[in-house]
Amino acid sequence: MGENTRAAWGMAATALLWSTGGLAIKLVPLSSMAVAGWRSLLSAATLLVLFRASLDFRPTPARLGAAAAYAGLLVTNVAATKLTTAANAILLAYTAPVYVAIFAPFFLGEKTRRADWYFVAATVGGMALFFVDKLSASGLWGNVLAVGSGLCYAAFTLCMRAGREDSPVSSVIAGHLLTVLAALPFLAGEWPDTGLALVGLGYLGIVQQGLSLALYVWCIKRLPALSAMLLMTLEPICNPLLVALGYGELPGFWAVCGGLVVVAAVTLRGLAGRGEGETA
Question: What is the pTM of this model?
Answer without folding.
Answer: 0.86
